[in-house]
Amino acid sequence: MSARILIAEDEVIIRMDLAEMLVAEGYDVIEQVGRGDLAVERTRELAPDLCILDVKMPGLDGLAAARIVVEEDLAAVVILTSFSQRELIGEAVDVGVGAYVVKPFQASDLVPAIEVALAGRAQLQALAGRADEAEQRLEQRKVIDRAKGTLMDAYGMGEHEAFRFLQTTAMSARSTMAEVATRIVDGTLRPNADASTD
């Protein structure tokens, strides 16, 4: 599947040439706008994979639009500019732009920038997913530890016995240990006084 791209460039001729170049390279140009504020609005509505934003546009400049797109995690961003000034490059990096292309450009300049920006966003999303998973595992570990503490304090179980109770209860209930632990902690599940867990 080809990447879906939104173009925001206030110069109509450049915008049309850019769209033609991208289509020839196999990309799907889903929208073309001439203002930064419209770029943000249409990005929110259409969810493109990538936005190509010119720096100098009416409504909202390209870097301000890029900041919103990146902060809201809407799409990867490539900035187009007629300037290669260090402060613009630095600001683009600070915003989180995936690539920066100086006009005039050719497909051989643009395609690698697009692919790098898309790959960078994919890597960030993968890292965010792994961070979320790690946080979820940590929260599960905490609730299991609290449940073991509850079982040890309230029911006189040893640590191994409390862990084994959580494990066997989860298996017999076809549930996760974290779900059983949550029920122990909130008091909706209590072990039978005469139940043996070993």
UniProtKB/TrEMBL annotation:
User: Is the Phosphoprotein keyword given for this protein?
Assistant: yes
Q: What is this protein called?
A: Response regulator
Q: Which UniProt keywords apply?
A: DNA-binding, Phosphoprotein
Any one Gene Ontology MF annotation carried by this entry is:
RNA binding
What InterPro entries would the database entry show? ANTAR (IPR005561), CheY-like_superfamily (IPR011006), Sig_transdc_resp-reg_antiterm (IPR008327), Sig_transdc_resp-reg_receiver (IPR001789), WalR-like (IPR039420), WH-like_DNA-bd_sf (IPR036388)
Q: Which domain of life is it from?
A: Bacteria
- Pfam families, per the entry: ANTAR, Response_reg
Signal peptide limits: none
Give start and end of each ANTAR domain. Answer: 124-185
Naming one, the record's GO cellular component terms include:
protein-DNA complex
Q: Which positions bear 4-aspartylphosphate?
A: 54
| Location of the Response regulatory domain | 4-118
GO biological process per UniProt: regulation of DNA-templated transcription
